[in-house]
Design brief:
Blueprint (H helix, E strand, L loop, with lengths): L1 E10 L2 E7 L4 E5 L6 H13 L18 E10 L2 E10 L2 E7 L2 E2 L2 H4 L5 E4 L11 H15 L1 H25 L8 H37 L6 E6 L12 H11 L1 H7 L10 E6 L2 E2 H4 L2 H23 L4 E5 L7 H14 L3 E5 L13 E5 L2 E4 L1
Parallel strand pairs: 3-13, 3-14, 8-12, 12-13
Antiparallel strand pairs: 1-2, 1-4, 4-5, 5-6, 6-7, 9-10, 10-11, 14-15
Helix pairs in contact: 3-4, 4-5, 4-7, 5-6, 5-9
Length: 368
Amino acid sequence: MKVASVELVNYRNYASLSLRLAADINIFLGCNAQGKTNILEAVYYAALGRSHRTQAENELICWNQNKGSLRLNFTRMDVENRLEFYFDREKRRQILYNGKNIRTRDLVGAFNVVLFSPEDLFLIKGAPAGRRRFLDNEISQASPSYYHDLAVYTRLVTQRNTLLKRIREHRSPASMLENWDPQLAVAAAKVVEKRLAAVSKLNMLANLMQRRLSANEENLSLVYELHGFPDKIMTDTLVSWYNKRLKESVEIDIMRGATGAGPHRDDLVFLVNDINLRSFGSQGQQRTSVLALKLAELEFLRSETGEYPVLLLDDVMSELDQKRRQALLAFIRREHIQTLITATDEAYFPADFLGNCYRVEHGQITMG
């Protein structure tokens, strides 16, 4: 999978940009707040239909304009494709895939990316929501059906939470939950089963990467932790177990006005040599493990889709020590992965790594 070109009109600080990209390494150099990350954000947006920096789409449009657009030309399995996004402060966005209008649920999986940013270095010690988001993004790109299953589950949880609040306020009878809980249990089981399968594969790949990065001194394990779920229960019991949990927690759920059982409460645990990284791992171990996870993410998507996704590295060179930088750059070059890298200093790269280098200053991009 390769991006051929990115075209921006009134997007962030780019009034007009038409940028052709090399099929291998693309490095964007410049001071902070010049527009480097905006390029990576646009490519990421084209893959998932949302920004990794904001939930407000109006922020994507130049501050003094009412409309903007993003166009991405890319190849998938050597077939040329085009994605177009049109933004309007007064209307809903429009998405076109090869000239045809599509919805977000039809977008995810058409074009794949892996993003590595400084915020990802806090993935292990951050809140569980970030680790769930990582899993959901990864699996959705590999399996568009998962994106649909997750949307169904999220909608059911939202509707059940609304009903719980109405029951708490004595505006609806508690018996109405009998209509929702069986549906929610089935939807929850679908999401968890796909997460478990993905984590099993990522676990193997991430451990391989961790051993390479640590000179075979560390073994990394990824464990999917179901909230309140007892150990060693087969996944074919998930539906009945969720039904039971929903019934058992109904009084607390009504009191809180929120559903307490389900994949929206689960977590991903990182272990190095059987030690919980979040609680006891050193900063170096945590950073190595996140890097191993990102490299595993690339391999996971390749195994699921048949080709590597586009890799986006947003200002992470300064956050990694020389050993980890060298390992990351060597992997990219060896596997011929198209990569977009932002950095403030070219000293982070070997001299022979700067073949496709762009200078970014005040929303203007020049070669070299």
